[in-house]
Amino acid sequence: MKNLIYMAFLLLCAQSYAGVAVIVHPSNSSAFDDSTINRIFTGKEKSFSNGNKVIPIGQDAGNPVTEEFNSKVLNKSSAQLKAYWSKLIFTGKGTPPKEAANDAEVIQSVSSNPDTIGFVSSGAVTGDVKVVKEF
User: Could you say which residues form the signal peptide (predicted)?
Assistant: First the structure.
């Protein structure tokens, strides 16, 4: 019985720390580092290193993968990020990333448009997209 409880605990821990994968279209050969990804998803970077205009796609606020991405990649809580975008929108200096409802929608968008970048749960990645960074 103890072993069963221990195994269940390990599975729960593994799921809650599944990680976040930043994905692009397979044809995108741009270079990515943590800073570039942060700058793209905070509206400070408007194009890929290949010169194409970047279209970032996030997921709905409150989604666990969004919370993890905001924390690990953007170093902001959801409340901080909401305030950040509110200020940029109000001053006309920025537009937040488009939002998808789930991993499947992000993968579909990224796989059909070479200028998109998004994030999904690491376990949701398919062969239709290319992972450029995992957190």
Answer: 1-18
